[in-house]
Amino acid sequence: MAFDFDTVIDRRDSDSSKWAAYDGHDVIPMPVADMDFVSPPAVLQALRERIDHGIFGYPDPTESLQNTVVTMLQRDHDWTVDPSWLVWLPGLVVGLNLFTRMLPENAAQATVTPIYPPFLVAPANTGRRLIKVPLRPAAENYQMDMAALEAAFAQPDCHGFLLSNPHNPSGRVYTRDELDALAVLAIKHDVLVCSDEIHCGLILDDSLRHVPLATLSPAIAERTVTLMAPSKTFNLAGLQCAFAIIPDAKLRLRYQRAARGIVTEISVMGMAACEAAYTHGESWRIELIAYLRQNEEALQQCVASLPGISCHTIEATYLAWLDCRQCGITNPHQHLLDHGLALSDGRHFGDPGFVRLNFGCPRSTLEAGLKRLRHAFEGNTTA
Ligand SMILES: Cc1ncc(COP(=O)(O)O)c(C=O)c1O
User: Fold this and answer.
1) Second label for 40, Cα 20 to 30 Å away, from 4, 251, 278, 298?
2) Are the CB atoms for 200 and 163 separated by under 8 Å?
3) pLDDT surpasses 60 at 10
4) CA of 93 to the centre of ligand 1 (A)
């Protein structure tokens, strides 16, 4: 390997929200979705050069940055995008909330559960109603329940759908057929879609490909706000640089109006990192995926040995959604915390009985975490 994913960097005494939360306690934190890896060398170099420039005034995304994103979308996703379709954002959660604000004041929005928690609170942030549509468990992983989605979209006040693809927390990469079926429903019921595709650079199963929803047809493109960023793939979440892709001019204007006075400039450091990551980060990303696959293997082996715990195949992301419903413990999150392992609590995703483990870390950190997982669950089962 040309890049180093094994070295453990101490983040306890840093600005890391994940590690700071447990500073001073004997807890291994594996919740919040960032990785314990240094970003690609080319990104660090670009950041150093930007610092050496020495002036950090108000920015505008450069033509070169916009072209880099457009080139990446063509190269990685076969999507021909005009630079004018891009709306720059500090992050995807901001983008998601702008989408809900753009809808009529009394509009309801649907999403599937379980789901990344900000999806569950974004509509309520501005007093809008959320319609939850549970995913359907299938042999390998979850699937969207099209009949239930149609029933949600058919509600007269339902104007929006919040999609996470690849899906957090399950790691599902939705197929073209599933997305086609979703698009048909959105068009039929005049529902706008916010498609959060932040994890699209992290496909672990190399027989799968990410399909941006908006590439399916002009009809779905004109009702979709796609959100992307280099932040998950290249571990840049603290640099606050993301973008929406909105092909339809009227929809883009509505979205930009919702952002007025709330979202202004994005970070100059984030822009430098974004350009470098998409231009020079590919060899690093390929090695990262290989490393994450081995981490997933180690995790799956451990989980398979534990009675009462299961985890489906993870197609994308560095997140494992662990089903603890058969383990005989009412609050698995607290139980694990009592054993020195902090995971994300499934309750916040709409599914108690589950926990989410982040395996985007050096192997030795993962092994230490798995040791605690084993210790917490061995012998603790009703199964
Ligand atoms: C599906 C999804 N969307 C958005 C985010 C957060 O994005 P941002 O940090 O750009 O707000 C995450 C982070 O875990 C995520 O998993």
Assistant:
1) 298
2) no
3) yes
4) 6
Q: Is 382 a residue whose pLDDT tops 80?
A: no
As a whole number, mean pLDDT of residues 223-229 equals: 98
Beta strands in 218-261 (DSSP E): 224-228, 242-245
Q: How confident is the model at residue 368 (pLDDT cuts 50, 70, 90)?
A: very high
17-39+282-377: CATH, from 3.60.15.10, 3.40.50.10090, 3.90.1150.10, 1.10.357.20: 3.90.1150.10
Residue ranges of the chain that CATH labels 3.40.640.10: 44-280
Spacing, Cα 227 to ligand 1 middle (Å): 10
Specify the CATH number of the domain 44-280.
3.40.640.10
Average pLDDT value over all residues in the chain: 96
Confidence bin at 238 (pLDDT 50/70/90): very high
CA distances from 91 to 14, 52, 88, 295 (A): 21, 25, 9, 27
Check if 244 has its Cβ closer than 6 Å to any atom of ligand 1.
Answer: no
Is the pLDDT assigned to residue 370 strictly greater than 80?
yes
Report the nearest atom of ligand 1 relative to the CA of 89.
Answer: 10
